[in-house]
């Protein structure tokens, strides 16, 4: 059964099929929320909230956009609401403190933390585009649907965001403060 059929049947009352959508998208949405919040617990909360919104608003969903773009748009809005509704303290220092891995693994974790810290320094509009493009391999058209902007705007945000990331990370990939 394809996604359109599942959504149609859920709208017709077969609510048990919602679990199929959750299984399909949960990990992607969780990881997206993690990249946005930088914290596992906050990402979990935002993921749960995203799926609550999907349940609440699925009847209003129409096939103009792809479902994937629609659900990522909801996740993006939920994460934005999260930052507006709470004083959020980034967990970068805590993430760096307890890392006890072998040298190669340590370097990878350090680089991942540097990239996350650099992402956190970007304006939300650039951060969203970079996450969707590089972590979720979305095409520019899909990203435009998620963020509600035109393709030229998405290209511009992507280019500007990448330039800032290069500045933030420097030559060695270490965060420049």
Summarize this, please?
The chain has 177 residues and is mostly helical.
Note down, in words, how this protein is organized:
By secondary structure, this protein is mostly helical. The chain has 2 domains: 1-89, Rna Polymerase Sigma Factor, Chain: A; 92-177, Orthogonal Bundle (Arc Repressor Mutant, subunit A), CATH 1.10.10.10. It has helices at residues 3-11, 18-37, 40-57, 67-85, 92-97, 103-121, 124-135, 140-147, 151-169. The protein is globular. Helices cover 73% and strands 0% of the residues. Belongs to the sigma-70 factor family. ECF subfamily. This is RNA polymerase sigma-70 factor (ECF subfamily). Pfam families: Sigma70_r2, Sigma70_r4_2. Keywords: DNA-binding, Sigma factor, Transcription, Transcription regulation.
């Amino acid at each position: 059964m394809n996604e359109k059929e599942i959504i149609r049947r859920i709208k017709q009352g077969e609510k048990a099929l919602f679990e199929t959508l959750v299984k399909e998208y949960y990990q992607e949405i969780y990881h997206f929320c993690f990249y946005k919040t930088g914290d596992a617990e906050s990402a979990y909360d935002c993921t749960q909230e995203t799926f609550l919104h999907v349940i609440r608003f699925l009847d209003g969903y129409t096939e103009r956009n792809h479902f994937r773009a629609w659900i990522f748009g909801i996740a993006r809005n939920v994460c934005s609401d999260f930052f507006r509704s709470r004083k959020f303290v980034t967990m970068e220092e805590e993430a760096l403190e307890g890392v006890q891995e072998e040298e190669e693994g340590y370097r990878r974790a350090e680089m991942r933390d540097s990239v996350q810290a650099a992402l956190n320094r970007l304006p939300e509009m650039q951060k969203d585009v970079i996450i969707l493009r590089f972590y979720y391999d979305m095409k520019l058209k899909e990203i435009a649907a998620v963020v509600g902007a035109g393709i030229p705007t998405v290209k511009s945000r992507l280019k500007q965001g990448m330039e800032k990331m290069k500045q933030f990370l420097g030559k060695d990939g270490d965060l420049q403060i």
